[in-house]
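Chain and backbone:
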Amino acid sequence: MKKILSSIALVLIAVLAQSQSSTSNPYSRFGIGILENPGSAIHFGMGGITTSIADGNSINLFNPASYSQLSRTVFQIGGTGQFQTLENASGSEKYSNGRVNDISIGLKKSTSPWGFALGITPFSSVGYNLTSTVSINDSTSTSYLYDGTGGINKLVVGTSRQFKLYKKRVVDPSITGNAKQIAELRIKESNDSLSQISPVLSIGLNANYYFGSIQLDRRVQFSNTTFFSTRITEKTTIYDFDFEAGAIYTMPLSVKWDGRKIKQATHLRLGADYQLGTSLKTKHDELGMAYLYSSFTESDIDTTYYTGIQKGTFDLPSRLSLGASIIMSTEGGRVISFNGEYREQDWSGNSYLLGSDGSSNLKKYQNIAFGIEYTPHSIDKAKSLLGRSTFRMGVRNTESYLSLSDQNISQNAVSAGISIPILASKSSSKVNFGIEYGTGGTLENNLLQEEFVRLQFGFSLTPYFLNPWFVVRKYD
């Protein structure tokens, strides 16, 4: 199993690193492209909320404090697809695309307060192709073409520590034999319940490595081969680290407990995540070419100029996320949670942008989301597959970091999702699915409006508790 997981991880990392662009959106021409919404398929189904989410059987790379609340080792993979309609005053066009979205592994020993995670996820995407044609005379026309591809990925390495703010019960050392075994079982049940009825604090830290390239091409193209066309290609590569800290605090609001098991409980979970602002290293070069265009083919004639590779920095602003969840559970395993989140990142002071669009287009990014998660029964209590599944719904309003022609570019979306147990695995492994419908942009001032349907699909794979994946050898 470990060899299979390692092979899958290597393949998907290679695929994710190569297929960076997952968008067909002219707005990705500005800044560093379209910022990807955080979270896996699990979070996607409830508005993309991540800050206050800590699931024992799935990985949340977007708040490092969640790693210590894993119940075991988890391997997680996911992909995304999008169907999009772009509209302006003159017409509309449809696009579709897809790619691997994330891959991660979380490591947790059941008796340890520490958790670790390693993963890779997209940070931004660039993908557009724009054309404007002007007639010069009856035999010649000029086309102005703009296209961009690429994106930035993020490699995450993080750790977390959990602090249980209560004193565990221990077995009386004077008890022996069968009475000791019975006492140990009862105290284990009691301590498991204590962990749910007492406050718990988790703190964590991520080291994020950003890498990837974005290529922007601009052409002035003549239909008449007696004129040379020109092409300018800009390529920017980003590579550097930043750090991110997170905290999750869980406290009981009301608990009905018989001393051994919880009958009913309501918890409040508060989450916070802060990404430090930093200057990421960049490499940038520009190449100008003269070419002839004929029969849909570009034939390069000569290099008009080349700037060479110039090193610089890109200012990545700090980001703050705050979240809260109300979680209500019953003895039969029925759990419902109400979740909310606010996230902001101020890009208005950015001093360096990819391409040559200037920094005046950027402003503060803000996202507000609300979501509901519902599980009818625990796995051992449910009588049907749907009874063991987890259902999600969510809404979000995203104010992007773009302001064009005095118009703020925003998105509004609703989402839904489900996690279905993989029964044949004899573990807590699940298939995760999410879908989102939304609109964005505007038709005002000759801008673009988009309508989209996005899908996310993935797996959260955990070992059977009698056959763990990583075991320390006791004998050689």
Summary: The first helix runs from residue 2 to 18. The chain has one domain: 2-461. The domain at 2-461 is CATH 2.40.160.60 (Porin).
